[in-house]
Design goal:
single chain; alpha/beta; Aconitase, domain 3; 2 domains; 5-stranded parallel sheet; 17% strand; binds 3-isopropylmalic acid; binds iron/sulfur cluster; iron-sulfur
């Protein structure tokens, strides 16, 4: 196993409380954020007479279950048992809750970096699989299950098996109309959905260095979709500039000291990885998923594959099952496929930069008559900043619904669902059968492509929209 000199190894070594043998270690958890849908972690704590070990390192925000309907999204969310439970638990255990309507409320993977809770060099554990998102800050971040939650709350530590390391070198500059989402969808299409199993992945190379923080979050967010529990980007000036001045980030002399330390984190020039992958992204075309698995992805001008051409019987059956579920035929073009729903949101693509990109496509255009299109900002802060810039007006003038922050239609466990047989372009991260509601047909894509498809009424390359009349 080689991890020597890597960013991952530095982060790991800084947090080992005890070596447990057989490749396992007990790690200190620097930040823990509790979303709703974290089951009965606090109930178990209470039953065993335990306290939260470090309430000052523990934060909470209701995201999965909240209604994002502007009229219903009254801060009380009356009748939502998950919100009521989270409020009662956090009050009892002295944990800071960013409540609905307050700055700091939103999807946990959006708010924790945005509030400066996640810093380079820290460890972050959250009871949600997309915790890998936070690795974009140069933090070691992983999702945990129910059993580990109680352990973290009670001890501020978590047992992890040391993963192997992989570096993904993304060479070249992203072409116009493409973004981090296209990059990661393409990557998963090339490597498959299990290539990351057992690895901590560090994304590097020219294309990654050029990404804004928002793009790095998108990239790391989807690490778990190809099997990697941890995704990382080495912190650099882009990271530090983005972080400076955030509410929980250090300031003054503490900032200077932190910065000097963070600059030591990047991997050494001779760092060794267990696996290296290199992809050139300079000719990337906007990507769209067509099936019910993340590796069923094509450039927008691609055609639906023919299962008959697939030699492997298991793969052939899964291609056919996706074709049937998605209502598609072999050879059909993706470009031009009519859609009824568009969802711009989720912890993958609901940050300010994502909304700016989508708004730039939408400005001066109208949502097609047959389409219901939503924009769901990832946090209350994103919502307020977007409104201060007038982005909400760009969307509502075009006929989009401008919603309140939450997970919303990413997973349809909150009333925000898509009807059976309806076809959607979604900026989220999962396209499993039924993910957006029973029978819903999800195509994952970037905010630019989703916005363009809303206006066209069908899946389209953002550059293929008719010009806006002057
Ligand atoms: C509900 C939660 C446990 C789940 C996850 O861990 O990913 C959700 O966020 C999802 O995206 O499916
Ligand atoms: S936005 Fe979607 S993927 Fe992200 S935490 Fe919520 S449900 Fe999970």
């Amino acid at each position: 196993m080689s991890t020597e000199g890597t960013l991952f190894e530095k982060l790991w070594q800084r947090h080992v409380v005890a070596e447990l043998g057989d490749g396992f270690a007990l790690l200190h958890v620097d930040r823990h954020v509790v979303p709703d849908f974290n089951g009965n972690a606090f109930t178990h704590l209470r039953r065993r007479g335990l306290k939260v070990r470090n309430p000052e390192l523990t934060f909470a925000s209701a995201d999965h279950s909240v209604s994002t309907e502007p009229q219903l999204a009254d801060p009380t969310q009356q009748g939502n048992p998950h919100v009521a439970q989270l409020r009662a638990d956090t009050r009892e255990f002295g944990v800071r809750l960013f409540d609905i309507g307050q700055p700091g409320h939103g999807i946990v993977h959006v708010i924790a970096p945005e509030m400066g809770l996640v810093l380079p060099g820290l460890t972050v554990a959250i009871g949600d699989s997309h915790t890998c998102t936070h690795g974009a800050m140069g933090a070691l971040a992983w999702g945990v299950g129910q059993g580990e939650l109680l352990h973290i709350l009670a001890t501020q530590t978590c047992m992890q098996r040391k993963p192997r390391t992989m570096r993904v070198n993304l060479q070249g500059r992203l072409p116009d109309h493409t973004s981090a989402k296209d990059l990661v969808l393409h990557l998963i299409g090339q490597l498959g959905v299990s290539a990351g199993n057992g690895f901590a992945v560090e994304y590097a190379g020219e294309a990654v260095c050029a990404l804004p923080m928002e793009g790095r979050f998108t990239l790391c967010n989807m690490s778990v979709e190809w099997g990697a529990r941890y995704g990382l980007v080495a912190p650099d000036d882009t990271t530090f500039e983005w972080l400076a001045g955030r509410p929980y980030a250090p300031s003054g002399a503490a900032w200077d000291a932190a910065l000097a330390d963070w600059r030591q984190l990047a991997g050494d020039a001779d760092a060794r990885f267990d696996r290296e992958v290199t992809l050139d992204v300079s000719r990337l075309v906007p990507q769209v998923t067509w099936g019910n698995s993340l590796d069923m992805v094509l450039p927008v001008d691609g055609r639906i594959p023919d299962p008959a051409q697939e030699p492997d019987p298991a793969r052939r059956a899964s291609l056919q099952a996706s074709l049937d579920y998605m209502g598609l035929r072999p050879g059909q073009a993706l470009q031009g496929l009519p859609v009824q729903r568009v969802f711009i949101g989720s912890c993958t693509n609901s940050r300010l930069e994502d909304l700016r990109t989508a708004a730039a496509v939408v400005r001066g255009r109208r949502v097609a008559p047959a389409v219901t299109a939503w924009v769901v900002p990832g946090s209350e802060n994103v919502r307020r900043q977007a409104e201060a810039e007038g982005l909400d007006r760009v969307f509502t003038d075009a006929g989009f619904q401008w919603r309140r922050p939450g997970c919303s239609m990413c997973l349809s466990a909150n009333g925000d669902t898509i009807g059976p047989g309806e076809r959607a372009v979604s900026t989220a991260n999962r396209n499993f059968a039924g993910r957006q509601g029973p029978g819903s047909r999800t195509h994952l894509a970037s905010p630019a492509l989703a916005a363009a498809s809303a206006c066209a009424g069908h899946i389209t390359h953002p550059a293929r929209l008719p010009e806006v009349a002057a």
